[in-house]
Specification:
L,D-transpeptidase catalytic domain-like; globular
């Protein structure tokens, strides 16, 4: 009799776990799909939901010697506190990890969106091709997007990037000291 009770308890526990997993999957299905647009020239990332901007972040993108890939990709994995593997070295999660606190791998093997242990690189063409973010920003993004969401990496400014990130910075004319002294410069 005890054996049957134990089996019923195990079956109930398994059924409970399965019901919770099904409820979680149903809840995730109700979340609208999100799309990420990265403008390499602007070094910015926008999160879109139904073509509406949810949030914009500054990023670092690929350096000239190791540019970010161009195209449309999907998020294929979502890793909290990633381990970095490179050329026979393994860097565990922590302050020395170049991937920071989060990794969202793209369908282009070896590329992803991740945090950094060098926040001063944000806003620059400094990575090996990945999209780097400040750890606090990538942690927020990590909670907003899911495996399967689309990531578009754009190398040229487009009407969409202008809508998302504004127009390119206008050229600023700086008055010389001689202009300031004579009163002819714009910067009086």
């Amino acid at each position: 009799m005890q054996r049957i009770e134990d089996q019923v308890k195990r079956l109930a526990a398994v059924a409970s776990v399965m019901m919770m997993a099904a409820a979680e999957a149903m809840a995730q299905d109700k979340r609208p799909a999100r799309r990420i647009v990265v403008s390499v020239p602007d070094r910015k990332l926008a999160v879109l939901e139904d073509d509406r901007v949810v949030k914009v972040y500054e990023t670092a993108v690929g350096a000239p010697a190791s540019p970010s890939p161009e195209g449309s990709f999907t998020i294929v994995n979502h890793i909290e506190d990633p381990t970095w593997y490179t050329k026979g070295r393994v860097v565990p999660p922590g302050k020395a990890n170049p991937l920071g606190t989060r990794w969202m791998g793209l369908s282009k093997k070896g590329y992803g969106i991740h945090g950094t242990n060098v926040p001063s690189s944000i806003g620059k063409n400094a990575s090996h091709g990945c999209i780097r973010m400040r750890n606090r920003d990538v942690e927020e993004l990590f909670g907003m997007v899911a495996v399967g969401d689309t990531v578009d990496l754009l190398h040229e400014r487009t009407p969409e990037t202008e809508r998302l990130f504004g127009t390119a910075m206008a050229t600023v004319t700086v008055a010389t000291n001689a202009d300031k002294v004579s009163g002819t410069g714009a910067a009086q």
